[in-house]
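Appendix B. Chain record.
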Amino acid sequence: MDHQIIKASVRRALKEDRAKNDLTLRILNGFSNKIITAKLTVKEKAILSGTEWFEESFKQLDSKIRVKWNFKEGTKLPKNSLVATIKGPSSSILSGERTALNFLQFMSGISTKTSNIKKTIKNKNIELLDTRKTIPGMRYEQKYATSVGGAKNHRFDLSDGLMIKDNHIAVVEGLENFSFQKNLKKGKFLEIEVKKLSQILPALKLNPDIIMLDNFNFTSLVKAISIINHKCMVEISGIKNESQFEEFSKLDIDFISLGDLTKNIKSIDFSLNLSK
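Structure tokens predicted for this chain:
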């Protein structure tokens, strides 16, 4: 976990919300520095994710704020459970609560979704991978959240490895036209995306670490895996529904990648209310 990235991300979010210029605080009269206690509860089952972002959202406004967690990061939260207690000056808690909740709800939503999908993959030797299909500026948070949910991170960015996709192939007019500079591949994996069976043998000639079979039906996947025949690792993508996870888990593959892990996210319903 990169604490500097977390601090910068929270700082940007607080600035976006103008948390240090909260107009409503000006009508609290003498109560803005009142020490209050707030309870964080969750209204549905979830995987807890983003606790450090939650705490940092308050700490950047007031270092005196204390958060006491009843659950650890990555654990299952029962419905209607008391997740944490926050204590500190009312002004800072009120100004930071929305930013704190935004991180926690969004990241817990990703982790929960990832965990639920991971359970549908019955073959424990198959790794679930995320993708780069993330919200601009939120990739670190989203990829962190998928890992909390049980997935592995695919490339974090374009410098993490070589990945030849259909548009690259179109530019050079065929897989046979790629050339590698000396040492370019050293220490980096090479992955090639193929969309039809006829591309597999040309792809294997480039000695890839992984071949990604994109949008293949089950019958074509069986044929493709037979052609690859353990010459490299196999990743499949393009799964459209949950039933396919169980079906594809029967195949001799290494990875399933899913862009939907970081898309179409349902935020978890947390609430922060003052103790009575």
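Further analysis of this model is presented in Appendix C.
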